[in-house]
Specification:
CATH class of the largest domain in chain B: Mainly Alpha
Mean pLDDT of chain B: 88
Mean pLDDT of chain A: 90
Strand content of chain A: 25-35%
Largest interface: A-B, 27 and 19 residues
Largest sheet of chain B: 2 strands, antiparallel
Oligomer: heterodimer
Helix content of chain B: over 70%
Strand order of the largest sheet of chain B: 1-2
Shape of chain B: flat
Order of helices and strands of chain A: EEEHEEEHHHEHEHEEHHEEEEEEEEE
Low-confidence stretches of chain B: none
Number of domains of chain A: 2
Number of strands of chain A: 19
Largest sheet of chain A: 6 strands, mixed
Distance between the termini of chain B: 39 Å
CATH topology of the largest domain in chain A: Rossmann fold
Distance between the termini of chain A: 31 Å
CATH topology of the largest domain in chain B: MetI-like fold
Low-confidence stretches of chain A: none
Number of helices of chain B: 19
Shape of chain A: elongated
CATH architecture of the largest domain in chain B: Orthogonal Bundle
Structural class of chain B: mainly alpha
Number of helices of chain A: 8
Helix content of chain A: 10-25%
Order of helices and strands of chain B: HHHHHHHHHEEHHHHHHHHHH
Strand content of chain B: under 5%
């Protein structure tokens, strides 16, 4: 899906943004989007993701660099001429207008005739299953309904690009998951390009073609969800996406991709070298809780194993979440599926754990 | 639903509504006692005086308390009866009474309100009342030939009852002719109603200027970062904290013929030295000074409304393709209506009743209706002052009602 610089539908080139002239909120952003792509900007608050979205929408100006839409630079184009649909976190439905009037607004300002407007409004409302609500006012609707209307309003004038700024942030969990599915479905059926901003990693992983993880004004990693989860490029991404065990240590051996790391208590573990360059370097090894094995038959042959003491077993229904003390760290978590033949663990029990070297990634120290 | 609800009972069989009422009675009583002091205060300091004022505008016993005989004669003879000897005899006996109680001046003043130039008739006649001999009619006419003027007798008949609409008649620039019909007074004497209309017009102009000036300031305040907005807010509120007199005096210093602004204009060559603008002691002065004083009352409600309008509304409109002007007109402006309504209503009502500023800087043509109320109060013509004040009150209430019909009072947002 990744687009090359020339045929990109949206591209940021060396974009920088500063509000006060002293600190950069966005530092040298380079990003290309293909037509029809669903890209999520994910990151903690203050990481620059919303600023990027606002620059794309035209509400903030880039301090440096160029933003292109469909090949044309849009830095100087005012927001109303960009033709970008936008969904806001608080929906931003005009409170003094009915749903129908809200949807009619973008069509009216484009000078569209009445019959054409009505047809488009009906189509947009049907698209979000809100056909019966045209005469309601926003205040008379629930959050989920308002969100659908906001979505319909952003789509009613057939924009090629739709921006969404944490659109589901105010909904409860169940509704949020349902809406994630619907937005994804709309994206696929309409073939629009979507740039989606969220701080919810679950949302990012479920919906996106690619996710750009933001931190400290930079994109830390730009990759499809599976790659992001399984092959994080650095400690920030590993820590931000999903649950993660971190073991600090020093690189003992380095053989191409394979590394052996000596933990603080002297034990050795296997890992894949990601951004360690030389022997003796300090590193943080990251392992997903569900990739840790403690049944001897599941640990790959020749792999190192280390001592672990079970501290706590939490029953979570589908999984058993086990907290262990490993190499002096109390927060090491192992998740195992709750199956009939699962080996029962009890607090205080001492076991040996290990993993496939591909699942442990030796990353930078934060 | 309501049928079912009325049949509901508590576990021990009491009707649910009765149980609820008794359960909440204590809390309600406590709440009532908490507001009782304020209630009494408002009653004593506001409701009673206003009631008194309303009453005074239609009740005046200055004349009626001194003329028992005339009152009797008026009761026996219907309206339009020409005064006969009996009438003059009654008048003469009342004049004797007035002389004893020294009430002739008061009584004459009351008739003088309606027919000017009649007060001296009463004081003169009362002075020699005990020397009057029958036939009284001739005797009285000898004292003053106006004593058989039907206007005077009509006025006395009306004033013989303490309840009267005379003061409203005057306030609307009307008078009763010899037949008792209402007619407009001479063009050059129509002061009250004309001033009433003018007061509303000037208040309207002041309100409009305030709105035009306050809207951008309020918007700026609402969009600036908090620290800067607070600083600006202090500047907006500064007029509030300065003595009214000091502010007005500084306007005089700035605006007078030899004042700062005229001096600058002359120095810049915009005006000739003989063409200095008259900007104070006239209507212009009233408008300038009152706009300045009332501006915060417009800024504050606007600001409080604008501050809570999220920027995402205008952003959404812009992203949907609206130009900044369309966004302002169709999205931003309609949402500020509660603030505009509150500001306009507040400034207008204050302006309509404003007294001190027009009195200080208004000169001859910058006086407002309140100044007329004050004028009659200094002349101890309480009924006239009350009638004029009531007109103001009713005028404002009518506007309030109109506002409620057009915009809805529930939309009002004062901050």
């Amino acid at each position: 899906m990744a687009a090359s610089r020339d045929d990109a539908f949206v591209s940021f080139e060396h974009v920088q943004k500063s509000y006060d002239g002293e600190t950069l909120v966005v530092k040298d952003l380079n990003l290309q989007l293909a037509k029809g792509e669903f890209l999520t900007m994910l990151g903690p608050s203050g990481s620059g993701k919303t600023t990027c979205l606002m620059m794309l929408a035209g509400f903030e100006t880039a301090t440096h660099g160029e933003i292109r839409l469909d090949g044309k630079p849009i830095n100087q184009v005012p927001p109303h001429k960009r033709g970008i649909g936008m969904v806001f976190q608080n929906y931003a439905l005009f409170p003094h207008m009915t749903v129908g009037e809200n949807l009619s607004f973008p069509l009216e300002v484009r000078g569209m005739g009445k019959s054409e407007r009505e047809a488009k409004i009906k189509r947009a409302l049907d698209m979000v299953q809100m056909g019966a609500f045209a005469n309601r006012r926003p205040a008379q609707m629930s959050g989920g309904q308002q969100q659908r209307i906001a979505l319909a309003r952003a789509l009613v004038f057939d924009p090629k690009l739709v921006l969404m700024d944490e659109p589901l942030g105010a909904l409860d969990k169940q509704l949020r998951e349902h809406m994630q599915f619907e937005i994804k479905h709309l994206h696929e059926s309409l073939g629009i390009t979507v740039v989606y901003v969220t701080h919810d990693q679950g949302e990012a992983l479920t919906m996106s073609d690619r996710v750009a993880v933001f931190n400290d004004g930079r994109i830390q990693q730009l990759a499809p969800p599976a790659e992001l989860y399984e092959r994080p490029d650095n400690s920030f991404v590993a820590g931000f996406i999903g649950e993660n065990n971190k073991l600090p240590g020093v690189v003992e051996e380095l053989n191409g991709e394979r590394a052996v790391v000596r933990l603080e208590n002297g034990e050795l573990i296997d890992a894949t070298a990601v951004n360690v360059k030389a022997k003796g370097e300090k590193t943080l090894v990251s392992i997903r809780p569900e990739r840790v094995e403690f049944k001897p038959e599941l640990i790959p042959e020749g792999a190192h194993t280390i001592d672990a003491e079970v501290l706590e077993v939490i029953y979570m229904g589908d999984i058993l979440r086990t907290r262990m003390r490993v190499a002096g760290h109390d927060e090491f978590v192992v998740k195992c599926r709750n199956t009939i033949d699962q080996m029962p663990l009890t607090p205080g029990q001492r076991i040996r754990i290990g993993w496939n070297p591909l699942d442990a990634r030796a990353l930078d120290m934060i | 639903m309501s049928d079912v609800a009325s049949q509901l009972t508590t576990a021990d069989g009491r009707p649910l509504k009765a149980a609820l009422a008794s359960a909440q009675a204590r809390a309600k009583r406590r709440a009532f006692f908490l507001v009782l002091p304020l209630l009494l205060f408002i009653l004593i300091s506001f409701a009673v005086p206003i009631g008194q004022m309303l009453q005074r505008s239609v009740y005046n016993d200055q004349f009626s308390k001194s003329v028992p005989a005339l009152t009797e004669w008026f009761a026996e003879n219907p309206k339009g009866t020409a005064p006969d000897e009996a009438a003059f005899a009654a008048l003469a006996s009342d004049l004797v009474l007035m002389k004893e109680t020294r009430a002739a001046g008061d009584a004459g003043t009351r008739i003088n309100y309606v027919v000017s130039g009649t007060r001296s008739m009463f004081t003169k006649a009362a002075r020699g009342a005990d020397k009057l001999e029958p036939p009284y009619m001739a005797a009285m006419l000898e004292l003053d030939e106006d004593w058989d003027d039907p206007l005077v007798w009509n006025a006395m008949r009306s004033a013989a009852s303490p309840w009267t609409f005379d003061f409203y008649t005057i306030a609307f620039d009307l008078e009763r002719d010899a037949d008792g019909k209402l007619t407009k007074v001479d063009e050059n004497q129509r002061i009250y109603f004309r001033l009433f209309i003018k007061t509303f017009l000037i208040a309207g102009v002041i309100t409009a200027i305030c709105l035009v000036l306050a809207f951008p300031i309020a918007h700026l305040l609402a969009t600036l970062p908090m620290a800067k907005a607070n600083l600006l807010m202090i500047l907006v509120l500064l007029p509030f904290w300065t003595s009214l007199l000091v502010r007005t005096t500084s306007w005089i210093v700035l605006l007078q013929g030899q004042g700062v602004i005229n001096d600058i204009f002359v120095a810049l060559g915009i005006l000739g030295d003989d063409g200095r603008l008259q900007m104070i002691y006239n209507q212009t002065g009233t408008i300038i000074a009152m706009v300045h004083i009332l501006l915060p009352f417009m800024v504050l409600p606007l600001y409080s409304v604008m501050r809570v309008i999220p920027v995402s509304y205008t952003r959404a409109a812009r992203s949907l393709g609206a130009t900044s002007w369309t966004t302002f007109r169709r999205i931003y402006l309609p949402q500020t209506i509660p603030g505009i309504g509150a500001g306009v209503l507040l400034v207008f009502i204050l302006a309509v009743g404003y007294y001190i500023t027009p009195a200080l800087v208004g000169g001859a043509d910058g006086q407002l209706f309140s100044n007329m109320v004050q004028f009659h109060m200094t002349k101890a013509n309480w009924s006239m002052a009350a009638a004029l004040a009531t007109m103001l009150l009713v005028g404002v209430l009518v506007l309030y009602w109109l506002y409620d019909r057009l915009i809805g009072i529930d939309k009002l947002k004062l901050g």
